[in-house]
Amino acid sequence: MLLKRIITASVLAFLIALAVFTLPTESFSFNFSLVIGVITLLAAWEWINLVGVTSPVKRVLFLLALILPMTGLHFWTQILELIAQAVDWPDVRDYSGALEWLVIPPVLFWILVMILIRNTPSGVLNLKMKTGYKVFIGWFVLLSAWMFLSRLRAFYGPEMTMYFLVLIWAADISAYFTGKKWGKTKLAPEISPGKTVVGMIGALIVGAIFAASFIGYIAYQDGFIWARIFDFVLLSVLTVLISIYGDLFISVVKRQCGVKDSGTLLPGHGGVLDRIDSLIAGIPFFYAGIVLIGLDL
Fold first, then answer.
1. What predicted TM-score, i.e. pTM, was given to this entire model?
2. Which domain holds residue 242?
């Protein structure tokens, strides 16, 4: 099983790295946003299955509810340009940056999720919600993840995007192996018996080391402001922390559904949602931090 997981993860990492570094960002081309949009829709299909929606029509409507705003967000600048020309309102172009404010709700959501799971894991696990609310939460977190991963790639480049992805992957791997080797105290046994406090600490330490190495190298090579290193390392560590609770959040949904994996698409890993749960939670927080720091490599 471990060998199968390693092979699948290696293939996926290669394909994603290829997409990050080679696909263009132009709106009218086969680009990075489209690729991760497909991944998001696969995860959405698994989500709608987990929350108990069985009607094919409702499932398709859920996908459309993601596709339509994705399209609007992707072509946001072009839409504003059309409005400016159609109604002679040139100032509408100034609203192109308004989408940055949309990062606040998902950041607050994931911080709240982390606090609730940390303080009352059994309460979160036993929380009863209507299917409609679960559907909305899935729509909200998946759309947010797609949006800010796309914007990270478009505005901060493939290097920063790849850094974020490797940060989360390295943290996941570190948490698994340090927890397996030394972990005794469970992080949230009601939700995920395999996760330990030592595993979480291992992930945070590796995240800090990786962040310091990355930003230190940039500072040394390009004369980057050394005072920003602490901010970047802190942001990376907090992103890892949030991502761990994103993983636990998806585990809550799976436990409520009574399944171990969100799907069977990826050999040795389960479903797409199983592989991107940490990324979903981490990307809004990381993107917001990059904007606040004003980091531009």
1. 0.92
2. 2-87+99-293
